[in-house]
Amino acid sequence: MNFDWHRIFFSDQDYSFFWEILFRTPIMFLAVVIVLRFTGKRGVQQLSIFEMVMIITLGSAAGDSMFYDDVGMLHALAVFALVLGVYRILIWLITKFEWFEIIMEGKPIYIIREGIMCLEELHSKELGSDEFLGALRGQHIDQLGQVKYAVLEDTGNLSVFFFTDEEVRPGLPILPDEYERKSNKIGKAGLYACSKCARTYQLEPANDVPCDTCNNKEWVEAVCRKRVA
Ligand SMILES: [Zn+2]
Fold first, then answer.
1. Pairing mode, if any, of strands 185-186 and 206-207?
2. For residues 185 and 195, is the Cβ–Cβ distance under 8 A?
Protein backbone atom coordinates (compact mmCIF):
# COMPACT_ATOMS: atom_id res chain seq x y z
CA MET A 1 0.00 0.00 0.00
CA ASN A 2 1.24 3.41 -0.90
CA PHE A 3 0.13 6.35 1.22
CA ASP A 4 -0.10 9.74 -0.35
CA TRP A 5 1.49 11.46 2.64
CA HIS A 6 1.27 14.94 1.20
CA ARG A 7 -2.49 14.63 0.68
CA ILE A 8 -2.99 13.10 4.16
CA PHE A 9 -1.22 15.99 5.89
CA PHE A 10 -1.86 18.92 3.57
CA SER A 11 -4.85 17.91 1.43
CA ASP A 12 -4.41 19.64 -1.93
CA GLN A 13 -3.09 22.81 -0.33
CA ASP A 14 0.42 24.07 -0.51
CA TYR A 15 2.19 25.34 2.60
CA SER A 16 1.01 28.91 2.16
CA PHE A 17 -2.45 27.87 3.36
CA PHE A 18 -1.01 27.89 6.87
CA TRP A 19 -0.77 31.68 6.60
CA GLU A 20 -4.39 31.83 5.61
CA ILE A 21 -5.39 29.75 8.64
CA LEU A 22 -3.37 32.10 10.79
CA PHE A 23 -5.47 34.95 9.43
CA ARG A 24 -8.86 33.22 9.47
CA THR A 25 -8.82 31.57 12.90
CA PRO A 26 -8.43 34.58 15.24
CA ILE A 27 -11.05 36.55 13.32
CA MET A 28 -13.63 33.79 13.43
CA PHE A 29 -12.83 33.09 17.05
CA LEU A 30 -13.45 36.71 17.98
CA ALA A 31 -16.61 36.76 15.89
CA VAL A 32 -18.03 33.82 17.88
CA VAL A 33 -17.18 35.48 21.18
CA ILE A 34 -18.85 38.71 20.06
CA VAL A 35 -22.00 36.95 18.85
CA LEU A 36 -22.28 35.00 22.10
CA ARG A 37 -21.91 38.23 24.06
CA PHE A 38 -24.81 39.64 22.03
CA THR A 39 -27.04 36.76 23.01
CA GLY A 40 -26.94 38.07 26.57
CA LYS A 41 -25.95 34.66 27.96
CA ARG A 42 -23.43 34.94 30.75
CA GLY A 43 -22.22 31.37 30.62
CA VAL A 44 -23.00 27.93 29.39
CA GLN A 45 -23.99 26.32 32.67
CA GLN A 46 -27.67 26.07 31.86
CA LEU A 47 -28.22 25.84 28.16
CA SER A 48 -31.65 24.99 26.91
CA ILE A 49 -31.82 22.76 23.86
CA PHE A 50 -32.29 25.56 21.40
CA GLU A 51 -29.41 27.54 22.87
CA MET A 52 -27.24 24.50 22.41
CA VAL A 53 -28.37 24.24 18.80
CA MET A 54 -27.39 27.87 18.33
CA ILE A 55 -23.92 27.22 19.70
CA ILE A 56 -23.44 24.12 17.56
CA THR A 57 -24.51 26.10 14.50
CA LEU A 58 -22.11 28.91 15.29
CA GLY A 59 -19.30 26.47 15.97
CA SER A 60 -19.84 24.67 12.73
CA ALA A 61 -19.89 27.85 10.65
CA ALA A 62 -16.87 29.27 12.46
CA GLY A 63 -14.86 26.05 12.32
CA ASP A 64 -15.48 25.47 8.64
CA SER A 65 -14.38 28.92 7.65
CA MET A 66 -11.21 28.58 9.72
CA PHE A 67 -9.69 25.88 7.57
CA TYR A 68 -11.76 25.23 4.44
CA ASP A 69 -10.42 27.32 1.61
CA ASP A 70 -13.76 27.15 -0.20
CA VAL A 71 -15.75 28.59 2.73
CA GLY A 72 -15.66 32.36 2.58
CA MET A 73 -15.43 34.21 5.87
CA LEU A 74 -18.18 36.62 4.93
CA HIS A 75 -20.53 33.70 4.39
CA ALA A 76 -19.76 32.45 7.86
CA LEU A 77 -20.29 35.94 9.29
CA ALA A 78 -23.62 36.13 7.46
CA VAL A 79 -24.60 32.84 9.15
CA PHE A 80 -23.61 34.37 12.50
CA ALA A 81 -25.78 37.41 11.96
CA LEU A 82 -28.74 35.25 10.94
CA VAL A 83 -28.34 32.83 13.85
CA LEU A 84 -28.17 35.76 16.24
CA GLY A 85 -31.27 37.28 14.61
CA VAL A 86 -33.24 34.03 14.88
CA TYR A 87 -32.09 33.60 18.48
CA ARG A 88 -33.28 37.08 19.45
CA ILE A 89 -36.66 36.49 17.76
CA LEU A 90 -37.10 33.18 19.58
CA ILE A 91 -36.22 34.79 22.90
CA TRP A 92 -38.77 37.50 22.23
CA LEU A 93 -41.44 34.91 21.40
CA ILE A 94 -40.54 32.89 24.51
CA THR A 95 -40.98 35.89 26.81
CA LYS A 96 -44.18 36.87 25.01
CA PHE A 97 -46.00 33.54 24.79
CA GLU A 98 -45.92 30.86 27.47
CA TRP A 99 -47.01 28.07 25.10
CA PHE A 100 -44.05 28.89 22.91
CA GLU A 101 -41.71 28.68 25.86
CA ILE A 102 -43.05 25.23 26.73
CA ILE A 103 -42.50 24.05 23.15
CA MET A 104 -38.98 25.43 22.98
CA GLU A 105 -37.68 24.77 26.46
CA GLY A 106 -40.11 22.35 28.05
CA LYS A 107 -41.38 23.00 31.55
CA PRO A 108 -40.21 21.90 34.96
CA ILE A 109 -41.64 18.54 36.04
CA TYR A 110 -41.89 16.93 39.43
CA ILE A 111 -39.90 13.72 39.76
CA ILE A 112 -40.53 13.16 43.43
CA ARG A 113 -43.27 14.41 45.71
CA GLU A 114 -43.02 13.46 49.37
CA GLY A 115 -40.57 10.63 48.72
CA ILE A 116 -42.66 9.05 45.92
CA MET A 117 -41.64 8.97 42.24
CA CYS A 118 -44.11 10.85 40.00
CA LEU A 119 -44.38 8.19 37.34
CA GLU A 120 -47.16 9.81 35.29
CA GLU A 121 -45.05 12.90 34.78
CA LEU A 122 -41.91 10.90 34.18
CA HIS A 123 -43.44 8.71 31.50
CA SER A 124 -43.65 11.54 29.03
CA LYS A 125 -39.91 12.06 29.42
CA GLU A 126 -37.69 9.51 27.76
CA LEU A 127 -35.20 9.50 30.59
CA GLY A 128 -34.11 6.43 32.44
CA SER A 129 -34.85 6.48 36.16
CA ASP A 130 -31.24 5.34 36.65
CA GLU A 131 -30.22 8.78 35.51
CA PHE A 132 -32.38 10.40 38.20
CA LEU A 133 -31.17 8.06 40.89
CA GLY A 134 -27.62 9.01 39.94
CA ALA A 135 -28.48 12.71 40.11
CA LEU A 136 -30.11 12.23 43.50
CA ARG A 137 -27.09 10.37 44.82
CA GLY A 138 -25.09 13.36 43.60
CA GLN A 139 -27.08 15.38 46.19
CA HIS A 140 -26.02 12.96 48.94
CA ILE A 141 -29.42 11.28 49.02
CA ASP A 142 -29.26 7.57 49.81
CA GLN A 143 -32.95 6.85 50.31
CA LEU A 144 -35.95 8.63 48.80
CA GLY A 145 -37.68 9.17 52.17
CA GLN A 146 -35.25 12.08 52.63
CA VAL A 147 -36.67 13.94 49.65
CA LYS A 148 -39.65 16.26 49.93
CA TYR A 149 -39.61 17.40 46.30
CA ALA A 150 -37.35 16.87 43.33
CA VAL A 151 -38.04 18.96 40.25
CA LEU A 152 -36.44 18.45 36.86
CA GLU A 153 -35.92 21.96 35.50
CA ASP A 154 -36.23 22.78 31.81
CA THR A 155 -32.46 23.21 31.74
CA GLY A 156 -32.02 19.56 32.74
CA ASN A 157 -30.89 20.50 36.26
CA LEU A 158 -32.41 18.73 39.21
CA SER A 159 -33.64 20.87 42.11
CA VAL A 160 -34.05 18.96 45.35
CA PHE A 161 -35.87 19.95 48.53
CA PHE A 162 -35.28 17.89 51.64
CA PHE A 163 -37.29 16.79 54.61
CA THR A 164 -35.88 17.93 57.92
CA ASP A 165 -34.24 15.16 59.95
CA GLU A 166 -37.40 14.78 62.06
CA GLU A 167 -39.59 14.48 58.95
CA VAL A 168 -37.46 11.86 57.19
CA ARG A 169 -39.47 8.69 56.59
CA PRO A 170 -38.55 5.16 55.53
CA GLY A 171 -38.02 5.05 51.79
CA LEU A 172 -36.48 3.37 48.79
CA PRO A 173 -32.71 2.97 49.21
CA ILE A 174 -30.93 4.11 46.07
CA LEU A 175 -27.34 3.16 46.77
CA PRO A 176 -26.44 0.74 43.97
CA ASP A 177 -25.79 -2.35 46.11
CA GLU A 178 -29.00 -1.88 48.11
CA TYR A 179 -31.20 -0.99 45.16
CA GLU A 180 -29.91 -3.94 43.14
CA ARG A 181 -31.24 -6.29 45.83
CA LYS A 182 -34.76 -5.60 44.55
CA SER A 183 -36.70 -8.83 44.28
CA ASN A 184 -40.19 -10.19 43.67
CA LYS A 185 -39.81 -12.49 46.70
CA ILE A 186 -40.71 -11.10 50.09
CA GLY A 187 -38.73 -13.25 52.52
CA LYS A 188 -39.82 -11.79 55.83
CA ALA A 189 -42.55 -9.42 56.92
CA GLY A 190 -41.56 -5.77 57.02
CA LEU A 191 -41.74 -2.39 55.37
CA TYR A 192 -40.85 -2.53 51.68
CA ALA A 193 -40.47 0.15 49.03
CA CYS A 194 -41.65 -0.41 45.47
CA SER A 195 -38.56 -0.32 43.25
CA LYS A 196 -40.41 1.69 40.61
CA CYS A 197 -42.59 4.29 42.33
CA ALA A 198 -40.85 4.15 45.76
CA ARG A 199 -44.14 3.97 47.68
CA THR A 200 -43.75 1.95 50.89
CA TYR A 201 -46.01 -0.85 52.09
CA GLN A 202 -46.04 -3.25 55.01
CA LEU A 203 -45.73 -6.65 53.32
CA GLU A 204 -46.02 -10.25 54.50
CA PRO A 205 -43.82 -13.05 53.06
CA ALA A 206 -45.09 -13.85 49.53
CA ASN A 207 -44.06 -13.83 45.87
CA ASP A 208 -45.02 -11.43 43.09
CA VAL A 209 -46.92 -8.95 45.23
CA PRO A 210 -48.08 -6.16 42.90
CA CYS A 211 -47.66 -2.54 43.97
CA ASP A 212 -51.08 -0.92 44.51
CA THR A 213 -49.95 2.21 42.76
CA CYS A 214 -47.92 1.08 39.75
CA ASN A 215 -48.37 -2.72 39.59
CA ASN A 216 -44.62 -3.31 39.75
CA LYS A 217 -43.69 -6.54 41.55
CA GLU A 218 -40.13 -5.85 42.67
CA TRP A 219 -39.47 -4.61 46.17
CA VAL A 220 -36.57 -3.39 48.24
CA GLU A 221 -36.59 -3.34 52.01
CA ALA A 222 -37.21 0.26 53.05
CA VAL A 223 -34.53 2.04 55.06
CA CYS A 224 -34.91 5.05 57.32
CA ARG A 225 -31.55 6.77 57.29
CA LYS A 226 -31.29 10.51 57.70
CA ARG A 227 -29.38 12.49 55.16
CA VAL A 228 -25.74 13.21 55.96
CA ALA A 229 -24.35 15.74 53.52
ZN1 LIG B 1 -45.03 1.10 42.77
1. antiparallel
2. no
Q: Cα angle vertex 40, ends 39, 42, to 5°?
A: 120
Mean pLDDT value across the chain: 89
- 226 assigned to some structural domain: no
Task: Give residue 59's domain range.
Answer: 5-102
Q: Pick from 52, 69, 102: which residue ends a domain?
A: 102
CA–centroid distance, 172 to ligand 1, in Å, is 11
CA distances from 218 to 192, 199, 208, 209, 213 (A): 10, 12, 7, 8, 13
If you measure from the C-alpha of residue 171 to the centroid of ligand 1, how many angstroms do you get, rounded to a whole number? Answer: 12
Q: 18 with 115, same domain?
A: no
Mean pLDDT of 112-116: 91
CA–centroid distance, 141 to ligand 1, in Å, is 20
Q: 186 alpha carbon to ligand 1 midpoint, in Å?
A: 15
135/163 same-domain check: yes
C-alpha of residue 216 to centroid of ligand 1, in Å: 5
pLDDT range class, residue 167, cuts 50, 70, 90: very high
Number of domains in the chain: 2
Residue 153 CA, ligand 1 centroid: distance in Å:
24
